[in-house]
Specification:
Elements (H helix, E strand, L loop, with lengths): L2 H7 L20 H16 L11 H14 L3 H12 L19
């Protein structure tokens, strides 16, 4: 039996995998998060009383991003496109190569 196979069999069964109580804890529970999301959506949909056209707050911000993008502001362009068209999927190239365990 190769050394790598011996090490694999000697592994502790408690290593890795999903365990109760592991992982990052949420900052708030699901009901609170839904409430916050609905309040944010409601706030963005309200008209801005200081705006001459009485546009919704979110539309004002999107117009600002658009105007900055027209000036050549690349981060504003990226943000505008991400918000209007959705973020593009990231393509990740994974190449796995065989590695040998070197033992003295």
């Amino acid at each position: 039996m190769e050394e790598a196979e011996k090490l694999e069999k000697e592994r502790n069964p408690n290593w890795g995998g999903k365990r109760e109580g592991s992982g990052r804890k949420p900052l708030m529970n699901k009901e609170d998060m839904e409430l916050v999301n609905s309040l944010i959506a409601q706030h963005g949909a309200e008209p801005d009383e200081t705006d001459q056209q009485k546009r919704e707050r979110l539309l004002i911000l999107m117009d600002k991003l658009y105007e900055e993008g027209k000036k050549g502001n690349v981060p504003a362009i990226k943000e505008y496109v991400d918000r209007m068209m959705g973020k593009s999927k990231e393509r990740i190239d994974v190449n796995l190569t065989e590695r040998k365990l070197l033992l003295d």
